[in-house]
Structure formats: structure tokens, C-alpha cells
Predict the 3D structure of the following.
Amino acid sequence: MHKILTIAGSDSGGGAGIQADLKVFAAHGIYGMSAITALTAQNTLGVQGIFNVSPAFVAQQIDSVMSDIGADAWKTGMLANAEIISVVAERARYYGIQRLVVDPVMVAKGGDPLLDPNARDTLIARLLPLASIVTPNRYEAQVLTGIEIRTVDDARQAAAVIHQLGARSVLVKGGHLPSTEAAIDVFYDGCTWSEISAPRLATRNTHGTGCTLASAIAVALVQEHTLKAAVQQAKAYLTAALRLADALHIGHGHGPLNHCLGQSILVPEEAQNA
């Protein structure tokens, strides 16, 4: 049984954060664990409140999991502030985490800030150098690099800069790019470039796409896929979960993805036909 620890914020609406992460893990037969960094009062319409957990208690949650159960990979999401980022980086070094997926969650879909602006430098200095892969969207990549991103070429430039900051590989997500018919993500591992494309889907149910993609990458990594293959597999799962999202009818705003029905994209063929 593979095990993944998600270190992220709680979404009371269930569509993003640790709730989305654990759904992705369960959909693929992975045992999921969590260290909660913040509580959010949140639904499909937006974020109504945030209560940050103390850095010491975040560390205690991590130590409780790692001292007994262990983990084959970590995935980080909303880390809230510089102090929590520092604690997570220190514990990652202590436990020698080799598979670390960093989703640099900074702003919610509705525009609500999810990371203290002063924490950017700590994220860059402490956590990015430990990351197997960093998965910023357009806006997060702009914050990390100072590069205005409007095209795929801009995304490539930003990916190169983020890689130079120490991450083993980078995936700049293209869902927010204004000028492409498809959603084109740019992957860079310091040696090779890849553009991973999927059609844009006409749905408002896109809450938790970033969390879902990063968690699915962590799943593929513990299944011994290469970084590039992990990204491709995760993108296929995300596209399936988006394609089937409208069947859920959850909430009155940006609803969640269909994590469970999307799982068949990664289930072995013989199991699908059983």
C-alpha cells in the first residue's frame, strides 16, 4: 500500500485542499494522510474565513504521521505563511523526502489570498530547492518570477527561472492563459521541454483543479513513473474529472471535480473490465 502525506489547508466545501487531495489518493488505491495548515470557511462561491494553524502544531502532525506510518511522497498545498513554510521545509529535510510535489497555492479562484505576501521569499529559498516538481498556475508563476505570462513562450521562460531557483522540475499550468484554444501546460526538467495539452472544457465546475493535478502527480510518482510521465498521467486524470464534473450538481458557484468517476483513466484495464 503506497502512502502519501498531504500538507495543506482544509476546504470546508470539500472541493479543494486536503479534501480534494484525499479523494484523489483514495480513487487510486493510495493511503492518504494529512497535516492541516489552515482551516477555511469555504464553499463554491468563495472563501468566507481563514484560521491558520500554529507552525508547531503543523510540525506535530507531520511527526505523528512520519514516526509511525511513514510516507512514500509528500504533497504540499496551502501553507499560509513563512513560518509554516519553514517548518515544512525543515521536516522534509529531516525525513529525507525524495518525492515532494509543491503546489504553490497563493490565491483562491475567487481572488482571496491564501498565502501571506511576505512568504514568497521563504517559499523560494526554503521549499522550492527540495521539490521534485513545482506546479504553479499562470498567476503563481508570475509572482514567483516577476515575468508577465500571456503566452506559452512566456510560460517557458518562467519555468526556466523557477527551475534555476532549485526545483528539480517545473510545470507551469496553462489553464489561465488567455490566448490558447487548448489548456497547454509547460514542463521543464532542466534538460527537456514538453508541452502537455488538453482541450478546454465548457464547465464552471473547476474548483480544486490545481490541488487535484498536484495530488495526481504525487500518485503517479509513488507508482514509479518518471516526472514527465507522472505529469502526463495526472493531466489525463484531471481532464476526465473535469469532463464528468457537471454530473455532480454541487453548489451554486464553481463546483468541484468528479474525482471518483475520473478514476477509471488510471485503473488497469483488467480491473475496468471485471
The CA atoms of residues 245 and 257 lie 5 Å apart. The longest helix spans residues 227-243.
